[in-house]
Write a structure and sequence with these properties.
The structure is a homodimer. By secondary structure, the first copy, chain A, is of the alpha/beta class. Chain A contains 9 helices and 9 strands. Chain A folds into 2 domains: about 70 residues, Winged helix-like DNA-binding domain superfamily/Winged helix DNA-binding domain (Arc Repressor Mutant, subunit A, Orthogonal Bundle), CATH 1.10.10.10; about 110 residues, 3-Layer(aba) Sandwich (Rossmann fold). A 7-stranded mixed β-sheet of chain A has the order 5-6-4-3-7-8-9, with helices on both faces. A two-stranded antiparallel sheet of chain A has the order 1-2. In chain A, strand 7, helix 8 and strand 8 form a beta-alpha-beta unit. At the A-B interface, helix 1, helix 5 and helix 9 of A face helix 1, helix 5 and helix 9 of B.
Chain lengths: ~210, ~210
């Protein structure tokens, strides 16, 4: 429906709109003007109107936005009206941090199990989620619906694991390994490169401003 | 020197150049053409030349780039020729994952200590880094050089902790809490919003392409 029409910059802002609207909902705010929203989010009101116009608007001139409606519509655009089954590869601290993050479930992302190769971890549980032997991964993926795999393994192992995941039918890879993955076009990769984030911080700390 | 002249998009690409050049260095590659680099990085060669021209070029027509030199120069632009002292607030799985990531040190980011409020964690160690009582934080920051604080506390607590950090003189905040921080202008905030990253993945999984 919105295919290829919406720019990456707009999409990058949508989760932030969604988060702000969710915060407002928690505070029982019913309606908000683009001006108020813009002050909260430190984005211009015209930017907000422009962004939302990409999806047909949602606001009525002079009435502002209905918070619950806008939250739910942006959620639909982001695909959050779907339930996703997620597995986590790697039961290190990062994998466990993701497994522990109950907030993901509220948005429809359900962590079903964690895979690791360390005998000391296999069989342990976190929040009721079992750490399974990585050798069972192929079979598990073939027998269960797995939409997203969070890859938290070292960078030397990530490319081959990701290729296997893709081969076994996983369409969404949430990659935390500091390497890029080259996967078939029908597989979506979202990278979280922590070291690169830290470098952007150091760039600005070292006296450089970003426009 | 480069103040306000370089666009955010270019800066966002620099850490990735740095990572690729580091990988090439590890493989003892001495020289690379923008064409080869572009094939590896899946960026056009002209994009690479344009990006690097922002900083004066570095390449000689027909000779390509000297990998070590380019890696070191981009490192300098990113401020990686400086040593940063980092503290981590929150010794949960995410805080421990960051403390465990030895790769940060190679880039000049040294985790000096972790702060938490849980009595069961205070006094424990990870990779030789001690978890201290959060009550000691103010004094620690005033007595030691702290350049960066990684904030891995719940979103309800993050804003006030970040304000305190800024007040005590910390100029760089690496924020993992799912909330925006409003801090004085001289404080640099770099956000890692995991839930938003997951939403971008779900957006694309739900049948939408990003340009």
């Amino acid at each position: 429906m919105y295919k290829k029409e919406i720019s990456k910059a707009v999409i990058n802002r949508l989760p932030r709109y969604y988060r702000y609207l969710g915060d407002l909902l928690e505070k029982d705010v019913v309606r908000i003007s683009s001006k108020e929203l813009s002050e909260k989010m430190k984005v211009t009101a015209s930017q907000i109107r422009q962004d939302l116009n990409n999806f047909g608007g949602f606001g009525q001139q002079g009435y502002g936005y209905n918070v619950e409606y806008l939250h739910s519509e942006i959620g639909k655009i982001l695909g959050l009206d779907t339930k996703y089954n997620m597995i986590i590869i790697g039961a290190g601290n990062l994998g466990l941090a993701l497994a522990n993050y109950a907030d993901f479930e509220r948005r429809g992302f359900f962590v079903k199990c964690i895979f690791d190769i360390a005998p000391s971890l296999i069989g342990t549980e976190i929040r009721g989620i079992t750490v399974k032997n990585a050798e069972e991964m192929e079979n598990y993926i073939k027998m269960n619906k797995v939409d997203i795999a969070a890859v938290t393994v070292p960078k030397t192992k990530a490319p081959s694991i990701a290729s296997d995941l893709a081969k076994w039918g996983v369409k969404g890879i949430w990659n935390f390994a500091p390497t890029d993955l080259n996967l078939p076009k029908d597989v979506t990769v979202e990278n979280v490169h922590l070291a690169e984030s830290l470098m952007k911080l150091s760039y600005r700390l070292s006296g450089n401003d970003i426009e």
